[in-house]
Amino acid sequence: EDQVTQSPEALRLQEGESSSLNCSYTVSGLRGLFWYRQDPGKGPEFLFTLYSAGEEKEKERLKATLTKKESFLHITAPKPEDSATYLCAVGTWESSVSGGYQKVTFGTGTKLQVIP
Amino acid sequence: GAVVSQHPSRVICKSGTSVKIECRSLDFQATTMFWYRQFPKQSLMLMATSNEGSKATYEQGVEKDKFLINHASLTLSTLTVTSAHPEDSSFYICSARRGQGNRESQPQHFGDGTRLSIL
């Protein structure tokens, strides 16, 4: 069974204090790993897709990296507006009688709070 | 790009009412749309997956007669909560995804959710 585990569950940082969020996965045949940001009362906002080990993507203060077992979301010099829940999800391919379909498994998220 | 609009954002209604929620992909054609339910301080719970022009696939434990899903076009899916009761109160979120290949997964793009409150 595909499993996605995010750690820590919650993280409190001082403004400017860099850190990393972890997403560990156990899946058969990774077809993509996704990072999302979710603000309270909103739907998740897409951040990055990573497809192969060694790949990195950056956006402002965020950088996502991928290995064969885990992904990290590095936050450099965070600001209070970076406070949110960050979700990781993995995509795999499931075979079926009709050919197959993409399956996505979400982690439970890391709630980040950045204090001024 | 990849904007998904969900409407309404909030609904408050009496028990027994049926409520329809719309999900539109505004700038791309969504082969597949998803409906999630999210409880406070918990992650997303997938309710069903719908492909344009075919019946939705419901996750185990989700009543298909209670939660009716229609995906009539490549840009619109609707979720109707029939005869809603207080226990159906929740945050419902839709997402849309461009085509699916068997090599690379495409990301889902989410709407802003609908807060449903049944009195």
Tell me about this structure.
- The complex is a heterodimer of chains A (116) and B (119).
- Chain A has 116 residues and is mostly beta strands.
- Helices cover 0% and strands 61% of the residues of chain A.
- Chain A has no helices and 11 strands.
- In chain A, the strands form 2 sheets. In chain A, strands 2, 4, 5, 9, 10 and 11 form a 6-stranded mixed beta sheet that branches. In chain A, strands 1-3-8-7-6 form a 5-stranded antiparallel beta sheet, with no helix packed on it.
- In chain A, a hairpin with a 2-residue loop joins strand 6 and strand 7.
- The termini of chain A are far apart.
- Helix content of chain B is 0%, strand content 50%.
- The N and C termini of chain B lie far apart (37 Å).
- The model of chain B has no long low-confidence stretch (mean pLDDT 91).
- In chain B, the strands form 2 sheets. In chain B, strands 2, 4, 5, 6, 9, 10 and 11 form a 7-stranded mixed beta sheet that branches. A 4-stranded antiparallel beta sheet of chain B has the order 1-3-8-7, with no helix packed on it.
- Chain B is built from no helices and 11 strands.
- Chain B has 119 residues and is mainly beta.
- Classes of the chains: A mainly beta (116), B mainly beta (119).
- At the A-B interface, strand 4, strand 5, strand 9 and strand 10 of A face strand 9 and strand 10 of B.
Write the layout of secondary structure elements.
The complex is a heterodimer of chains A (116) and B (119).
Chain A: E1 3-7, E2 10-14, E3 19-26, E4 30-38, E5 45-50, E6 56-59, E7 62-66, E8 70-75, E9 84-94, E10 101-106, E11 110-115
Parallel strand pairs in A: 2-11
Antiparallel strand pairs in A: 1-3, 3-8, 4-5, 4-9, 6-7, 7-8, 9-10, 9-11
Chain B: E1 4-7, E2 10-13, E3 19-25, E4 32-38, E5 44-51, E6 57-58, E7 67-73, E8 76-81, E9 90-97, E10 109-110, E11 114-118
